[in-house]
Amino acid sequence: MTAVLIACAHGTRFEEGRVVVRELLDVLRATAPDGVEVHEAYVDVHGPYVTDVVAAARERTSDIVIVPLLLSTGYHTEVDLVEAADGLPLAPALGPHPVLAEILADRVRATGAAPDDTVVLAAAGSTRPGAVVDVERTAEMMRDAGITAPIVTAYAAASEPRIPDAVHTARAAGHRTVAASYVLAPGHFSRVIEKAEADLTSEPIGADPRLAEIVWERWREARAGAAVGAADPSVTPTRRRALRRVARVTARVLGGALLAALVAIVLLAAAGLSSDRGVRRRRRA
Fold first, then answer.
1. What is the pTM of this model?
2. Cβ neighbours of residue 168 under 8 Å, at least 6 residues apart?
């Protein structure tokens, strides 16, 4: 039976970015195990959309794994792709991963960065807390990969600090700045990074052949996990999909409850402070 890896990128309106993704797909096809097809898909902006690619693949085989060509976890990996997979095995994002950190470290060194420069690891950003954790972990891995300069993380959107602010802060402290472009391909976010006007800016990760090692590792692990689930007759595809939906709803409810709890704490603290001030005024009177 044919096996299918659906390589799902974000999508971009910039043609140079689409070229890079197609080049990476060529690398994946050249390194694919025997009997494994690599299908192109996108989660946003343009087609072929992942939902359509999944539907077409299901007509031919049940041995399907979706691997996001995304660098960190985020809304797309936690919601959109989970829904598109509809019970199919879904691998995690490419990062954090030591090989990805090595590629980033090589890109930084290629700029001519010095040991006393400040490296700003410039990521796209996400509203999902896990994305910040992933980027911070990637910064740690870059240190393990040999970057001795100070590394700070910054974001183009959604998270703080923003990239221009991180560049300004480092420059104000007297350091030359190097923006390490933590994006896969040229596009909107690479332009945001360039506009931050760091002293040096690295190239996007691009279709580096080493990415294939990560993609196929993610594919093997997700596929093996699916095989383990399939070995348990009680875990039917219908039940697996239901469990995934319950998990998503639970995560959303817990997230809302956490936010409500934080708001309540702030309001209680404010009320306590107001009460304390009132007591002090009465005492003075």
1. 0.80
2. none
